[in-house]
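User:
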Amino acid sequence: MEHDLISALRKVARPVTFADGDALRLKGVFASDILLITEGAVDCILSEDGDVHLEVGPGDIVGEIGFLTGKGANATLRAMGPVAALSVDGAALARLQRDAPTDAAGVLRHLAMLMQSRTEENVDLLANIEAGDEQSAFEIMRCSTLDQLRIAQKLRYDVYCLEFGRTSPYADPEEGTIIDDLDTTGTSFLAFHEGRAIGTVRVNIGRDSDFGPLTEIYGVEGTPFAVEDSSIITKYAIREAYRGGSAYIRLFAAIAGFVHSTGVKAIFIDCVPKLARFYATMGFERTAPDFVHYENGLSVPMVLDLDEYAGRMSLEERIRRNRWR
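Assistant: Predicted structure:
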């Protein structure tokens, strides 16, 4: 990347450091930023067996494909010695567009060209090794465009209003959508099976969202977790034919990996009483009395300590177990 663009990003990005052997990215995990390497070298492990590597260093950007497309990381990235980088998320790019639109345009052009060349390079590198892999019929994506978000909003309506027969103060029957204010600060994910959207989930992070009354309803202040270090799953909708299968767990794994990668310590949910025992087996604990959710009915608020969860089963193991085939 050109020196003037790096200088522009330094004004809006967050400096981060990694020790030798640290994972900057885990294959399949979703991230909310790209990383511009400023010092050190990074090993990009592209293949499952670890046979295909690329090395990147100062001035190189990593994570741009997932950031721009909404897909999980297509490689595991490990520090080869101490590494320093700049973390650039959507908010940083928005500040750059506001304060230095010419520099922002240059950064976005660079990202677009880099994504195209990297995608072509990765396809060539993996062509022989993974040619025999069966193409997955399932895919999970982070909503990175308004069109993707609209698919999620329509899917919510289909599940809550048409399949469950419930009502929502945020439902628009003419548009066939459920949209509320938390969409502006939340991150939504979509699960597809054979090209059809079959599930969606939205998570809001305390440092980015105003939880308002949700803080009390979910009992956040009665837990060891600060609001800014917490997240809440504020929407979860799975089509009837896929409930009880792996779609739910895989969507949750995507969200857990995503929020944990941002430094979030806890994830709050609410569930119907009959599912409370299931969540308890995952490590969730009740946080407050039952309440009535406007779409789900009687609900149990619960929380999961993400550090403990990651300790019981590493993210790498979870991604490998939950990989969609």
